[in-house]
Design brief:
Elements lengths: L3 H33 L4 H36 L4 H5 L1 H4 L1 H32 L8 H39 L6
């Protein structure tokens, strides 16, 4: 299946997926994050929650699109034998592709931690009949979750940039 239109479509969708992820991460880190420092804390929290919810949709769709279009590209270029014959490990192209896939997997793991572990901690409300110690512990848990989300999103931005560099290197046969 070496159809040129299929390969062009796969390339377009692949670039669209990574552009959505990297562009969204960049905007969240360098535009929305700093802007939140100039508005009242309650509004910053709501803004962070709403933009975070929307970006999670963009991020997960982008990662899924990158996976599906990457598989489409692999098959349309006739490179699927790499997976079976072990040339992932013996060629520059294969090692670069494997590195890119491993970094993509790290993005998925970090996204899962943010989506299913840390974000739910931010949405929880303090119980009205709870003690002051419980309220303080809940608030401390939320602050810790915010710090971890910050670190993970910064790491994801760097990792996504590296994925793009790995992908660009494939055009030239991979990294040494």
């Amino acid at each position: 299946m070496s159809s040129t239109p299929v390969l062009i479509l796969g390339n377009y969708l692949h670039l669209l997926g990574m552009a959505g992820y990297l562009g969204g991460s960049f905007a969240m880190e360098f535009v929305l994050g700093p802007a939140q420092k100039f508005i009242p804390p309650a509004q910053a929290q709501v803004m962070g929650e709403k933009t975070g919810d929307r970006f999670l949709w963009v991020a997960w769709c982008s990662l899924g699109l990158s996976l599906l279009s990457g598989i489409l590209r692999l098959f349309s270029m006739g490179e699927q034998s790499m997976v079976v014959d072990g040339s992932f490990f013996t060629s520059s192209y294969g090692r670069s592709l494997l590195g890119m896939m491993a970094l993509w997997l790290v993005l998925v793991i970090n996204g899962s931690i943010i989506t299913f572990v840390l974000r739910p901690k931010l949405k929880g409300r303090t119980k009205a009949h709870g003690s002051a110690a419980q309220a303080q512990a809940h608030q401390q848990g939320q602050l810790t979750a915010v710090k971890w989300i910050g670190w993970l999103t910064r790491a994801d931005l760097i990792i996504a940039f590296c994925v793009v560099l790995f992908g660009a290197s494939l055009r030239f046969g991979g990294l040494g």
